[in-house]
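Example with several molecule types.
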Amino acid sequence: MLGNFHGLDHARFMVEALIEAEKAGKRGDRAIGAVIVHQNEIVARGSNQIESADSNLIHAEIDAMNKCASFLRKHARECVIYTTVEPCVMCLSTIVMANIRHVVFATEDRYMNMKPFIQSNPYIAKRIHQYLGGIQEERSIELLKKYSPETAEVILHGHRI
Ligand SMILES: [Zn+2]
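Resulting structure tokens for the full complex:
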């Protein structure tokens, strides 16, 4: 079912996404990063730029996908997107529309709670072949707490405490 995707070193690629997350946190953006991998090589890196670009639309996954949009038109089905936080409703939908079928994330987003969303829509459910969380989760949470404590709170608890 997953073909060559079995052999990927998820932990290693998530470390690369975490490097992007830390860069974002250091410059005042939310500490969330992403990388897109094709045949064991990173083809794009992205990070949250909500503050630095003054746009609610530039999430890490969107940034990474935009950086390799033309590559994705040909090769998306063989790509895996690694993101340090579970994709939100915008990013998951964009991942589907970009034809990326494999999603690996570090920290589950309890606020957005996307799993029931995916399961409830046959179009989306059919197009997400792999949805794997918990990879390098501790390091992702650590970065969120350090740089983006409000985001960390919402993601980890599903609401503001
Ligand atoms: Zn998003």
